[in-house]
Write a structure and sequence with these properties.
alpha+beta, 5 helices, single chain, five-stranded mixed sheet, 28% strand, globular
């Protein structure tokens, strides 16, 4: 069995702080956030679904996000694991079909399951809308 990196409390806290900064931000709207373990890289990635990815393209969306994260306490490893995705991305659409009407998913863990045709080893959810 391969070694699986544990999601640390500092990462969970970082994701929560960032999510709470983003969820009410009018200039950088977001639809959801979650930590997803990606077995290909063996690392956790903080996926943030934002329509800005489709509106201005990924490069500019990352630039806009940088102006928000630069005012936060975070280490470079945490920042490098942020992955902006379109809310139209198939995995996110599948998650939204399962969790989109749930009052709150913050802190929910899902794992060893398949959603939308993709196997999920482990995930930590903040919000899916």
């Amino acid at each position: 069995m391969a070694y699986v990196e544990a999601l640390e409390g500092t990462d969970i806290d970082f994701g929560k702080v960032l999510w709470h900064k983003l969820r009410g931000n009018k200039e950088f709207p977001t639809d959801g956030a979650l930590w997803l373990f990606q077995s290909e890289s063996g690392k956790w990635h903080l996926l943030i679904a934002s329509p800005r990815v489709d509106q201005v393209g990924p490069r500019e969306a990352y630039r806009e996000l940088l102006s928000i994260t630069s005012r936060m306490t975070a280490d470079s490893d945490q920042l490098s694991r942020i992955e902006l995705i379109s809310p139209k991305q198939p995995l996110y659409l599948a998650l939204r079909s399962v969790f989109g009407k749930t009052a709150s998913v913050e802190g929910a863990r899902i794992g060893s399951t398949q959603i939308g045709g993709r196997y999920i080893d482990d995930a930590y959810l903040y919000e899916i809308r």
